[in-house]
Amino acid sequence: MSAERASRGPERSSRDAFIATTAKLLRRRGYAASGLNEIVTRSGAPKGSLYFHFPGGKEQLAIAAMEHSGGQLQAGIAQLLASSEDLGEALARVLDALAAGLQASGFRDGCPIATVALEAASESEPLRASAAAVFDAWLAVIAERLRSAGLSAPAAERRALLVLAAIEGALILARARHDVGPLHAVREELLALAV
Amino acid sequence: MSAERASRGPERSSRDAFIATTAKLLRRRGYAASGLNEIVTRSGAPKGSLYFHFPGGKEQLAIAAMEHSGGQLQAGIAQLLASSEDLGEALARVLDALAAGLQASGFRDGCPIATVALEAASESEPLRASAAAVFDAWLAVIAERLRSAGLSAPAAERRALLVLAAIEGALILARARHDVGPLHAVREELLALAV
Q: How far apart are the C-alpha atoms of B14 and B12, rounded to whole Å?
């Protein structure tokens, strides 16, 4: 390994560790309750490198974390939506995967964006815009699948908003109840709609 | 006014002021970002009376605020759902009222419960249970309206979960985008479902 790569390696891994730790905390408890000191401690990365990678501090770090989580979930949704030619079945698989992840995490891992979106919608324009961009990217993936199932572009956009809204809302209700029932109910309702 | 009523009056109004101020802050920015000092300052009530009314501190105050907001919104939903014999029209009026309130508040006043529910779902059992109780009360009102429109009890329960989830999710998307479009889309989709 060249000296250049050796020096780039740990820097990259510190950056990744900050992002992964922040993404997890934002998902589980939101922005205001996730302190920079805890992020540094949990990430295991040197504190001195935090402002090297994120000179904008917590807000910049949160935006990077939301982009990271948003991209991961977008890839997962796209994969599941492409996994069945049947639209209802494809949507059901997305709901099932979210329910399984929520249950496996002890009802901690719901939407990685929603909590920050709600906290920041009226408080931080950069965080709000970042959350909106993630939601828009997810909506585009869902709308594309709906168009490929035969819906017109306006109908697909409208239905995609219903699908994402129902998923987001069901994740709130499921986390509040510690019960995946709301995700199952939305799954059944969307299956019936897709017929 | 008797001496007894005169002394009870200000006590009651301090309590109400703490609750109203807390409810507003929880709705706009959530639990972690709403500090007790700010609540006291904004409420205009004497700081000394905070622990008199709420010996359990911020958590107890937040629970009282969520009960207050939850009850208000429940009454509003029930009234709108009863305002038309047509189920689709009744649901559309709920969405319209939420969209109007959100827009009038500069996209600040979404669901008064959701932010705290997401922040606290894994962090505070009393806050989680309080949020779940409010959601359950709203679901009961919606399910009752659906049953009165002819749905069986299990179908009404399932559809009520879809309706509330879609509303909650649309409020997140609308706040993140600063655009009531998601609420309008869900309104149209629910209207079509209700036919």
A: 5
pLDDT at residue A6 in the model = 42
Test B185 with A114 for CB contact under 8 angstroms: no
> Are the Cβ atoms of B122 and A169 closer than 8 angstroms?
no
Q: Which residue of B has its CA nearest to A108?
A: B122
> Mind listing the pLDDT tens digit for each residue in A87-98?
999 999 999 999
2.30.300.10, 3.30.460.10, 1.10.357.10, 1.10.238.10: which CATH number matches A3-194? 1.10.357.10
Question: Tell me: the pLDDT tens digits for A57-89?
Answer: 999 999 999 999 999 999 999 999 999 999 999
Q: Is the pTM of this model over 0.90?
A: yes
On chain B, the residues whose CB falls within 8 A of the CB of A152 are: none
Residue B101 in tokens: 């309130």
Q: Do B186 and A118 touch (CB under 8 A)?
A: no
Q: Is the pLDDT assigned to residue B157 strictly greater than 60?
A: yes
DSSP A47: G
Domain boundaries, chain B: 3-194
Instruction: Sort out which chain A residues have CB atoms less than 8 A from B33's CB and list them.
Output: 31-32, 119, 123
- Looking at residue A146, its pLDDT comes to 97
Inform me whether the C-beta atom of residue A89 falls under 8 Å from chain B C-beta atoms: no
8 Å CB contact between A120 and A56 = no
List CB contacts (< 8 A) between A170 and chain B.
161, 165, 169
Tell whether the model's pLDDT for residue A173 goes beyond 80. Answer: yes
Closest C-alpha among B126, B118, B100 to residue A169: B118
When computed from its CA atoms, the radius of gyration of chain B, rounded to whole angstroms, is 18
CA atoms within 13 A on the CB side of B84: 12
A182 touches chain B (CB under 8 A): yes
Which residue of B138, B162, B164 to mutate against A (max A Cβ within 10 Å)?
B162
The 10s digit of each residue's pLDDT in A140-159 is 999 999 999 999 999 999 99
Q: Nearest chain B Cα to A188, which residue?
A: B158
**Residue reference for tokens 């300052």:** B41
